TrEMBL record:
InterPro entries: ScpA, ScpA-like_C. The keyword Cytoplasm applies. Pfam families: SMC_ScpA. This is Segregation and condensation protein A. Its main location: cytoplasm. Keywords: Cell cycle, Cell division, Chromosome partition, Cytoplasm. Participates in chromosomal partition during cell division. May act via the formation of a condensin-like complex containing Smc and ScpB that pull DNA away from mid-cell into both cell halves. One of its GO terms (cellular component) is cytoplasm. It comes from Mogibacterium timidum. GO terms for biological process: cell division; chromosome segregation; DNA replication.
């Protein structure tokens, strides 16, 4: 016989549905004798564990026993003929089907409650001043209008500056190799061997932080390749870039 090991049920129908589902039975075709035995066995186990069995569990047990007896013993009329009644399981099956449907609805509502707990709504604002008395807006001091309009223009200008800067970075961003070529051309055209040029003159005009960083990294790479030297007299001071003579390998 199938044994049940469940800690808690919400009610007798919860237990009965569990037994039917685990026995892979159809609600409308219950093997009453088997289910009744499992149900009573579970109630006995609860008693052995000193778990209080509520009266509704006992009532359903009585219903199952009565149903089992009706299934096993046919009803006989006064003249000894067997009377064929409607399937006695139908009433119980209908109640179980209604219970399952109600339980599914309850679970769906609980899921919605939990989902809605994660949603935060903005409190409604009082819009009556704009709906009922639109003329009140025209009584606002002219200085407040000017101040609000100036704030709007400043914000619009900041947004435009950010967009312009972003687009320029995306369009003009160069690699170290490209910047080395750019700086090398300037040094070649403007500086003789042994002479120096300020690092700032090797950085493109209107340079941002990315351009300055890229130029400095390119300078370090040029020093590594022994194309130039660099000198700085003090911390955070001007960097002088000194052109070196190009070394050629003698075969």
């Amino acid at each position: 016989m199938y044994k049940v090991r469940i800690d808690k049920f919400e009610g007798p129908f919860d237990l009965l549905v569990y037994l039917i589902q685990n026995a892979k039975m159809d609600i409308y075709d219950i093997r009453v004798a088997e289910i009744t035995e499992q149900y009573i066995a579970y109630l006995k186990e609860m008693g052995e564990l000193n778990v209080e069995v509520s009266s509704e569990f006992i009532v359903l047990a009585a219903v199952l026993i009565r149903l089992k007896s009706r299934m096993l013993l046919p009803r006989v009329n006064e003249i000894g003929e067997i009377v064929i009644d409607e399937d006695p399981r139908m009433e119980l099956a209908s109640r179980l089907a209604e219970y399952v449907r109600t339980k599914k609805i309850a679970e769906m509502l609980q899921e919605r409650i939990e989902a809605n707990e994660c949603v935060h709504e903005k409190p409604a604002e009082d819009m009556s001043i704009y709906i009922d008395s639109p003329d009140e807006l025209l009584k606002t001091d002219i200085e407040q209008f000017v101040s609000a309009f100036n704030a709007f223009l400043q914000k619009k200008k900041r947004v435009a500056d950010v967009k312009k800067r972003y687009q320029r970075i995306k369009r003009d961003r160069a690699s170290i190799e490209e910047r080395i070529n750019y700086m090398g051309m300037i040094i070649k055209d403007r500086v003789s061997v042994g002479e120096s040029i300020d690092f700032a003159r090797l950085v493109p005009e209107d340079a941002d932080r990315y351009d300055v960083t890229l130029s400095f990294m390119s300078l370090l790479e040029m020093i590594k390749m022994q194309e130039v030297d660099a000198k700085q007299d003090r911390n955070y001071g001007n960097i002088s870039v000194i052109k070196k003579e190009v070394q050629t390998d003698v075969q």
